[in-house]
Specification:
Shape: globular
Strand order of the largest sheet: 1-3-2
Number of helices: 9
């Protein structure tokens, strides 16, 4: 019938499979460049290949995996261009977020950012620290109170997570000790409503990770 609505399909299982695969990538089970085979994933997860295929499509839209006809599906390995683009886009989004937090964030929102730093200070390994780092930035974007900005952050969040995993794959010296203190400085500047200092510190925070990845050797 003309104008009819196509019945919706339940996508719960595919979403759950995507969550499992994403977590495995973020936990280091599948390193960048690793091949993800539908048959093996379906067997490991106890599902048919259909939900796995849908899950991989979802992860491809997030930029976490790439599919090529001659290679199949692999975990995204960030090129130098990928790193530069992510860094510049993140800078643009983060500048607006920081400005909005300084301008209008309430105490509850600032406390949530504080709490994220507290979790970083208790992280026991690099992968947990990366997760805490992302949670810190989640809290900053939430505190900005700008729904479309938060949506834009969510669109690149998985790729930024991959960016940070790649960063710890290159160098971890001082990472566990230095990252919490660095973020404590960020939240202190936000709490002080010091726009210039906050923007400078967030830029320095991004620059350090970008330089580590820019200086890697293939």
């Amino acid at each position: 019938m003309s104008g009819s609505v196509v019945p919706a399909r339940r996508r719960g299982l595919a979403d759950e499979v995507a969550d499992r695969i994403r977590d495995a990538v973020f936990d280091g089970v599948y390193a960048p460049g690793s091949q993800l085979r539908e048959v093996e994933l379906a067997e490991a997860l106890g599902v048919s290949r259909g939900p796995v295929r849908e899950a991989l499509f979802k992860l491809e839209r997030e930029g976490l995996v790439r599919s090529e006809w001659h290679r199949g599906t692999t975990v995204t390995a960030l090129s130098d261009d990928d790193v530069a683009e992510l860094n510049s886009l993140r800078a643009a989004l983060e500048q607006l977020a920081v400005e909005l937090v300084v301008e209008r964030a309430g105490e509850d929102s600032l406390a949530a950012i504080d709490a994220a730093v507290g979790r970083m200070e208790r992280a026991i390994d690099e992968h947990e620290m990366v997760r805490c780092d992302l949670e810190f930035h989640d809290a900053v974007y939430a505190a900005a109170g700008h729904r479309r900005l938060q949506d834009a952050w969510q669109a690149i969040r998985s790729q930024v997570h991959l960016f940070l995993l790649t960063r710890i794959g290159v160098a971890t010296d001082g990472y566990l000790d230095g990252i919490p203190a660095e973020h404590r400085e960020l939240v202190t500047a936000l709490r002080a409503r010091d726009r210039a200092t906050a923007l400078a510190l967030f830029a320095e925070h991004r620059r350090h990770a970008f330089e580590i990845l820019s200086g890697r050797t293939d």
